[in-house]
From TrEMBL:
Its EC number is 2.1.1.63. InterPro entries: MethylDNA_cys_MeTrfase_AS, MethylDNA_cys_MeTrfase_DNA-bd, MethylDNA_cys_MeTrfase_DNAb, MethylG_MeTrfase_N, MGMT, MGMT_N_sf, WH-like_DNA-bd_sf. CDD domains: ATase. Residues 8-60 form the Methylguanine DNA methyltransferase ribonuclease-like domain. One of its GO terms (cellular component) is cytoplasm. Keywords: Cytoplasm, DNA damage, DNA repair, Methyltransferase, Transferase. Pfam families: DNA_binding_1, Methyltransf_1N. Belongs to the MGMT family. This is Methylated-DNA--protein-cysteine methyltransferase. It is an enzyme of class 2 (transferase). It catalyses: a 6-O-methyl-2'-deoxyguanosine in DNA + L-cysteinyl-[protein] = S-methyl-L-cysteinyl-[protein] + a 2'-deoxyguanosine in DNA; a 4-O-methyl-thymidine in DNA + L-cysteinyl-[protein] = a thymidine in DNA + S-methyl-L-cysteinyl-[protein]. It is found in: Cytoplasm. The lineage of its organism: Bacteria, Bacillati, Actinomycetota, Actinomycetes, Streptosporangiales. It comes from Actinomadura verrucosospora.
């Protein structure tokens, strides 16, 4: 986890693509300080199936287009997917599905900003900074949790 001015700006997985060099993160922060404690709590609740939407202060650094893509990702409902093309159309850039994919891949806070919910035009699993096995796991996890919730209510 990486924070700047009390807001989460990076959450990186082991072997993640597009991960900045460790030395660029600066000195380690106090793990009990915010936003680290809240991030850890919310991630634990997410993986326990108790949280479907994160509510954390974010300080994401990217281009204006990346910012628009990352904001749109946060609107994809838990347990659902969209395609790169559908996201491009939603952003008013119907021919920009590749640019959407690149911005998606540069998302610095995977899981929190759910880039794993974007799939290829055929529904295939394509590209994920944390690896396709993780993407498959996250999508399956959310679908199962959502199925259980629907069955209960």
């Amino acid at each position: 986890m990486v924070a700047l001015d009390g807001a989460l700006c990076g959450l990186y997985m082991v072997n993640q693509r597009h991960r900045p060099p460790q030395e660029s993160f600066g000195a380690p922060g106090d793990p009990s300080a915010e936003p680290f404690a809240a991030t850890a709590e919310q991630l634990a609740a997410y993986f326990a199936g108790e949280l479907t939407e994160f509510d954390l202060p974010l300080n994401l650094r990217g281009t204006p287009f990346q910012g628009r893509v990352w904001a749109a990702l946060q609107e994809i409902p838990y347990g659902e997917t969209t395609t790169y093309g559908e996201l491009a159309v939603e952003l008013g850039k119907p021919s920009a599905s590749r640019a959407v994919g690149l911005a998606n891949g540069k998302n610095p806070v995977g899981v929190i900003v759910p880039c794993h919910r974007v799939v290829g035009s055929t529904g295939s699993l394509t590209g994920y900074g944390g690896g396709l096995d993780r993407k498959r796991y996250l999508l399956d996890f959310e679908r199962k949790a959502r199925s259980v919730e629907a069955a209960l209510f």
